[in-house]
Write a structure and sequence with these properties.
The chain contains 11 helices and 12 strands. The protein is α/β, with parallel strands linked by helices. It has 2 domains: about 10-155 and about 300-335, 3-Layer(aba) Sandwich (Isopropylmalate Dehydrogenase), CATH 3.40.718.10; about 165-280, Isopropylmalate Dehydrogenase. Strands 3-4-2-1-5-12-11-6-7-10-8-9 form a 12-stranded mixed beta sheet, sandwiched between helices. The longest helix has 19 residues, at about 95-115. The model has no long low-confidence stretch (mean pLDDT about 95).
């Protein structure tokens, strides 16, 4: 648990996307009163200008300087950005933006690990820009897992959760091709996910969550007629979790379990693959959706949308999901 007096850290995301804009909007709405932005001053000033609302920046040497930030100033921890970042065209894939976004994430994580901040909120990054920059991770989750590696190089078991007021979904597999996701699914992967979800629920005040486990196949396999993964390892993993005292149930047909959870039958749903789990959450609207990385030794949240290159720089981006992510990081880092 981190001291509540420590600030949150909010990374700017891809400089060519809506990340800087929604961060600026959240600040102007008074939602970043206990946060420090990690990024580039030129990029942030450009976003404020696009909103027609310039604001003074307070350039900090450490997140701990947040307490001395002058009123009305946006506190910024300069993240070693490229001088050309603020001149990059909006809505373009650029390796310089990808490299900078990765640097800002690394800087924020280091600060939390050094006890200078209490949680990390990440604005959207662009996976193609990361790849073009040579960053060896397909997304935030994998990068954060690597940054949280132990002294011996061991990686913490992490899982991606997408949550909104109506539904919380934890994924067994994430950013891999569907064919590869099927190869990664096994008894240990499912059981580990259920355990991680169970432990994490205590952070938001549910020490005994009701966890529904979605099947993989149509009708959850229909007794093996449409696939036997439910019989071979998903069902046995559920039973093993129950033997540990976890209130896990299933596997349930994936086409109905989310409706049941939304209606209050379950607190969490564990889904086998990325799109199985995220389509239902995002269908309910991205405005209040939050991406939470479970299993890290610190709190990390993010909006549940991407860089929205098509509207970047036009002042149209909705900051609601980022604001919700900030509020959830504040809640989780306080222990519930």
């Amino acid at each position: 648990m981190f001291a509540p007096s420590l600030p949150l850290l909010v990374t700017l995301g891809d400089a060519c996307g809506i990340g800087p804009e929604i961060v600026a909007k959240a600040f102007l709405q008074g939602e970043l009163h206990d946060a420090v932005v990690v990024g580039d001053a030129g990029v942030l000033r450009r976003a404020l200008a696009a909103l027609g609302r310039p604001a003074p920046l307070a350039l900090l040497q450490s997140p701990l300087d947040h307490a001395h930030c002058p009123p009305g100033c946006l506190p910024l921890l300069a993240g070693g950005g490229d001088a050309a970042l603020a001149a990059l065209p909006w809505g373009t894939i650029d390796p310089r933006a990808g490299a900078a976004a990765a640097r800002w994430i690394e800087q924020a994580v280091r600060a939390v690990q050094q006890g200078q901040a209490r949680a990390v909120v990440t604005a959207p990054i662009h996976k193609e820009a990361l790849s073009a920059a040579g960053v060896p991770y397909p997304g935030h989750t994998e990068m954060l897992q690597a940054l949280a590696a132990g002294p011996d190089g061991s990686l913490p078991p992490v899982r991606m959760m997408l949550a909104n007021p109506e539904l919380k979904v934890v994924l067994v597999t994430i950013h891999v091709a569907l064919r590869r996701a099927l190869e990664l699914l096994d008894f240990d992967a499912v059981l580990s996910t259920v355990r991680i979800a169970h432990r994490a629920a205590a952070a938001w005040g549910q020490p005994a969550p009701r966890i529904a486990v979605a099947g993989l196949n149509p009708h959850a396999g229909e007794g093996g007629l449409f696939g036997d993964e439910e019989l071979r390892y998903i069902g046995p993993a559920v039973q093993a979790a129950r033997a540990e005292g976890i209130d896990a149930q299933g596997p349930f047909p994936p086409d109905t379990v989310f409706m049941r959870a939304r209606q209050g039958a379950f607190d969490l749903v564990v889904a086998m693959t990325h799109d199985h789990g995220l389509i239902p959450v995002k269908y309910l609207g991205v405005e209040e959706g939050v991406n939470v990385t479970l299993g890290l030794p610190f709190v990390r949240t993010s909006p549940d949308h991407g860089t929205a290159f098509d509207i970047a720089g036009r002042g149209l981006a909705d900051a609601s999901s980022l604001v919700t992510a900030v509020r959830m990081a504040r809640q989780l880092s306080a222990g519930g």
